[in-house]
Design goal:
With 181 residues, the protein is mostly beta strands. It has helices at residues 29-32, 72-76, 100-103, 167-176, and strands at residues 4-14, 19-24, 38-43, 46-58, 61-66, 82-86, 107-110, 115-123, 130-135, 138-143, 149-153, 158-161. A hairpin with a 4-residue loop joins β1 (4-14) and β2.
Length: 181
């Protein structure tokens, strides 16, 4: 089976018909939480595949009905559950767009070839993403912007960046400050 990727977490029950409010963990919530899609519900060490039978969005959060979840009690029991999809079900992305899971673990190099660190996470929405890079000087945030991120090769697990002057120092200054400064 394909690797399962987190697409959302159940926040709480909604209404009395077994619907749940989901906090999405994807930039493509409309695509991931569509009627007919199958999600894997992971909770308390157990996994169960369920099909989405109804969905609507409120304040950019999906309110989802899942097959087999019929009552408010059923829905309340899902609070905190992770909703996942197989990586193979995610489909292709537009040019110069990458899945977060493909970026995590990539080595980050400067344009002169120097190793700066490794991506440990990606924060923010698609249009304003920040790479979280573990460096020898602490954590650095690098905007995923044209002119800063020069080349991304997820298959080779490599990203080349052209950092604006002072970005590395700005990030490392923030990491070296004592609490309260």
């Amino acid at each position: 089976m394909s690797e399962l990727l987190l697409i959302g977490r159940v926040a709480r029950a909604h209404g009395n018909k077994g619907h749940v409010i989901v906090n999405p963990e994807t930039d493509f919530a409309q695509d991931r939480f569509a009627v007919g899609n199958e999600v894997v519900v992971e909770q308390h060490g157990r996994s169960l595949a369920r099909r989405i039978t109804a969905v609507r969005f409120q304040d950019e959060r999906p309110i989802v009905a899942l097959d087999g979840v019929e009552t408010m009690d059923d829905a309340e029991a899902l609070a905190g559950a992770e909703l996942k999809m197989p990586a193979s079900a995610l489909g292709p992305l537009p040019a110069n767009t990458f899945y977060r899971h493909d970026l995590v673990g990539c080595e980050v190099k400067g344009s002169a070839g120097e190793v700066l660190g490794r991506v440990t996470g990606v924060q923010g929405p698609l249009e304003h993403s920040l790479l979280i890079v573990a460096t020898g000087r602490g954590e650095m945030m690098v905007p995923m912007a044209v002119g800063i991120v020069v080349h991304v090769d997820p298959a080779a697990k490599r990203i080349v960046v052209e950092l604006p002057e002072g970005l590395m120092d700005l990030n490392s200054l923030g990491a070296s400050k004592s609490p309260g400064e």
